[in-house]
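User
Please review the sequence:
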Amino acid sequence: MSEDAPDFVRPVRGSRWSDTQSRDALQAIAEGVAEVAGFDLVGISVAREDGYLHTLALVGPEEARRVLVDSLAPVDQLLVQLETAEDWGALKFIPHDKLVLDIEKWGWFSDAPRDNVAAGAWHPEDMLIAPLEGADGGFLGFLGMELPRDGLVPSAEKRALLEIYARQAGRAVVTTLERERLAERVRLAGTAADIVRLASGTQSPEALLAECGREVTRGFRADSLWVQLLGPDHRCDGPLHVDGGPTVRLPSGVRALVSAHAQRAWERQCVAVLAPDRPVPGVLGDEQVAELLDFFASVEVGSLLFVPLGAGPACFGVMGLTRGHHGAEWSDEESAAALDIGRDLGRALANARTFAREHELVQELQDLADYKGRLVATVSHELKNPLSAILGYVEMLESEPSLSDDARAWIAAIQRGGDRLARVVGDLLLLHELTDADDLEPAPVDLAPIVDEVLEMNAAVARGRGITLTAEQPPEPTLVLGVARDLDQVVTNLVSNAVKYSTDGGSVTVRHERVGDEVVLTCADDGFGISEADQAQLFAEFFRSSNPAAVAQPGTGLGLAIVRRIVVRHGGRIEVESELGRGSTFRVYLPSA
């Protein structure tokens, strides 16, 4: 792909792979491969939707990390190069004399001597690659290894061992990438369900936008949401609604563009990404493009996802989701979900204007809730397949009597990773079970024995770190109207989180009391604390704290989401008070029996 070619489009924004947990998981895989395979440079690159490879994780020299991490390279050039590679099974070896990639533009080589390299020695421009494929056989990316510590091209015996490592690491990488994609689908499906739920009871377009705007902004990880409604004549009607950003006034020229193109976008059922460095829709002229870009620059918007809102043949307005200059690229999944939400909001707007479609919206809410449940169940199923393969290989390796102590330690690390994935699957299944509140059969439940049992279960871990566990319980029973198993899960998740995110020598206190018609369960610690920014997303599925100390602790990002789901299902609520570095206090309010 030449930079002078007419179809050359250089990427301008970061990858959509922004999830910290996925990044950390890929980095851990790269570090594990480097250690067990004996290579000083190991990288993991993922194929993006725009035809580029994005390097997400890398172990190697600092100069290589500086050049390669978050670098982009064309996928098609690598695929052409692989046709000339030596086939080592799961591995593809590219000798330096067969290299056609323009590494100076797209990669990095060490400055080791290239002259008089002995036969069988590793040449600085040799490459060893393990292509990664998804469940559908499609190309996902690759695992690359360079700079062997012994300085030699792997022998046949070592190739066999490297192939085992590559296959195991490849499955782990594929699992991580598929988890990211599935997590995005869960997030977007959840947003769609939330929008329908919030919109079903609104009686005016203004109330609808006020109710739904925050959920759309959060669900799409946008900086702000703009909505411009249209009147019966398809002209802009009323002011621009903004959620998540400063007040914005559309210039008259931009309002005219919205009026002219919103109906066309709705009829074609398409969305558009508008950004300074992106190709713009062909229906816009140069002057119109310049006016749009000048407007974006004036309000510090890096990109905007333009989405029509409508129902049937009618377009009621447009929705614009904005991101800053360094924001992630809009993915195909997000574009498709945005168009779905454009349809949902359009129907809700029609309902608010006519007061005649409430029953239909309630039915759509149920359909979307069912879809979300099926999606969570699918996530669990899809995670089980690669997990079973990983754990199966671990079991086979554990039975090998000739393994060294180091090899057994590495296998134990793989086992821990598999167990962690198993916990993710378990949490997802629990989320799926908690979707329907109609099957709740509450009964009086005493919190005291639950608290005692949970503290006893966490006592060993707490003692090992010098953490004091304290229960402050009233003399009389504290009865909650609920399901004992679910309430046990709430206490378990809160206490285990408090212990996990406490500093050594800290303290965790659990108390419960009846206040009026409610029982208040409190779990307080003096640990890491939670920033104000993180508190806004604390109960979202798959959310992990931005605090490096908290990110270092293992977790699925589902524990508090499960707590919130159970509490809401019981007709209660949950609140958090926290300050970074000074601990956290969670209060759960439940109906008393």
Summary: Residues 372-433 form one domain. The two ends are 69 Å apart (CA to CA).
